[in-house]
Amino acid sequence: MAGVPPATPDAAGERQELESPREATRLLSELEENYNKLWIKYAEAENTIDKLRLAAKVNLYSDGPKPGHLVQAVYNPGASKFMTLNFPQAQRAE
Known about the structure:
- By secondary structure, the chain is mostly helical.
- It is built from one helix and two strands.
- The chain has one domain (15-80).
- The chain has one helix at residues 21-61; strands at 7-9, 15-17.
């Protein structure tokens, strides 16, 4: 019906009539604000999940040194020598 304000549920879930267009506008603004806050919380949760997944992958593929574990580097002159590898020529099968 024209001129009849829409009904909205109240806190108890019962429908109540809006008293004025100003109240409807206020309610709409409040709903939009709540909607935006929920989207922000959702985005933050998605970011947290992504960070946890990334950390799990990094920890899965790398075992870093244990805290307090000393790693010593020693120069080994024999490790820098060149080696020559000779492979026989491939032959065709007939």
